[in-house]
Amino acid sequence: MKTADTHIRYELIPAPAHLQAYIRYFWTLEGDDPQALAKAFGSLVDGCPGLIFQRPDVGAFIRESKKLPEMFLYGQTTKNVEIASLGPSKATGVIFQPNGLKSVFGLNAGELTNDCVDIQLVPGNGRLSEQLGAAGTAGTQVEILSSWLHKRITGNPAATDPLVDYAVAQIANSNGNTSLRDLQEKLQLTERTFERRFKEQVGITPKLFSRICQYQASLHQLKSNDYSKLSDIAFENDYADQSHFIRSFKEFTGCSPYQFQKLLDEAGAEIMLIK
What we know:
This protein is an alpha+beta fold. The protein folds into 2 domains: 8-155; 162-271, Homeodomain-like (Arc Repressor Mutant, subunit A, Orthogonal Bundle). The protein is built from 11 helices and 9 strands. It has helices at residues 34-41, 100-105, 128-134, 138-155, 162-173, 180-187, 191-202, 206-223, 230-236, 242-253, 257-267, and strands spanning 8-14, 23-31, 50-54, 61-63, 66-67, 71-74, 83-85, 89-96, 116-118. A 6-stranded antiparallel beta sheet has the order 1-2-8-3-6-9. Strands 5-4-7 form a 3-stranded antiparallel beta sheet. It is globular and about 50 Å long.
């Protein structure tokens, strides 16, 4: 989908079939309004790591007052953070599957939670930044990234954990409402071993991943305006009550559901990245 706002152009591009086990989406973003760009990123708490390439000759992103590298990998985000722009920006990115840092790059995902790393420090990046910078269009950048990731995945497959992959799928498919105790017993793992292996692959504990999946389901329902009152969202997403829903939403989004709805009304639902 593309935004219709004059200050920002955003496109979300599904990964090709041969990469969908590793990548959820590619995206491109261009705009000249720093405030609109900040709104476009919305909450990064989505249960997935990612990669961002930005054109430093156009502008630069900052996160918590820190200027971000031209191209970087970021891990799981577990709290609301603000991504802002120093002027106009052009960027292209990748949203990986929850275990993408491990399955694609062989990294211990827990080491990048709430953090990022310059792609230049990751072995095997070659001339990727240079090629992306020379690309004429955002579509060409996505093609370059797709080809580079495909070669990396097929040429040097990283080790994954089938039991954790199964657990991730069960939690995600249930929107975070599967029983972790039952899941742990089915996998025949102790609680400590389950958490350690999950954190290495995904970057966070199964419990926190479940909470994020539950929050994402409620966020999608709110964006879709598929409710009569907020208590409907809390009930349909298995929150204990409305106050628990509001508290969780504020933790991950930085504002209450009421404030978020106001932002949607002001900026238009398409301005917020729907992952």
